[in-house]
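Usage

Read records sequentially. Each one opens with the input sequence:
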Amino acid sequence: MRLLDRPYLILAATTLIWAGNAIASRLAVGHVSPMMLTCLRWVGTVILVSIIAGPAFRREWPAIRAHWKWLAVMGVIGFTGFNAAFYLAALYTTAINIGIIQGSIPVMVLAGAFLAYRTPITGLQAIGIVVTIAGVALLAARGSLDLLLTLAFNFGDLLMLIACLGYSAYTVALRNRPAISAQPFFLGLSLVALISSLPLLAIEVAHGSAQLPDLKGLAIILYVAVLPGFVAQILFMRGVELIGPGRAGLWVNLVPVWAAILGPLILGEVFAWYHAAALVLVLGGIAVAEGGRR
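and closes with the structure output:
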């Protein structure tokens, strides 16, 4: 059997790459600034996607042009906003925290679908949402009841939470995606992400906090542009093609698990008791919510 015909191997690799993005964001600290990383990441991704999707993009240009406003909003929220907040959060929090909070996206999407489209939520799904939120709150408060009661959360965790809320809104809005093929659609969003990241980079430069990448920074940019920005997208689309979006989406739950393994292994981060408790609550909440599907 060919490698690209093995959905579980493909999806496991996809989630490992996405968790690696959290590790890369932490490794980037001191080697390339967050907005520089965001912008240069999209430069690399646009080049790669253009090679694959350029001809199809030109063929479907009339449809793309007709829906450019929708694509612009989606690209800013789902691509630029998510990545900018993601890499900025890495200045203040750990890769383990980033991965666990990112794992809450499926439940945020479930809640967002209810708010936007009144998609029915069962009792078990409601319980799953509450349990997942409890896990994220426990993580953000670092297991301290005093911090939880005073809402004195880590700034990086709050940034990551905002990033996930934005990406969840983007995911919910995909229900109204215009009739554009997957690859040209992705290229269109990537172009928007690149263009809209330029003002953020300009602000960083004006603030005096911009940092050009050194050799390690260039390696990190290459990683995030090629693997999370391109290869993982292709692999995930193939996984969805093989086993369907519902089953493939469940594999996103592996991201916090990989992050909890890679953080201590590569970065030497401490895996505290509240990380374990938050991981159990987030994954448990998602499992309960999935079990409550109609």
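Summary fields computed downstream for this record:
- The chain has a mean pLDDT of 84.
- Residues 3-291 form one domain.
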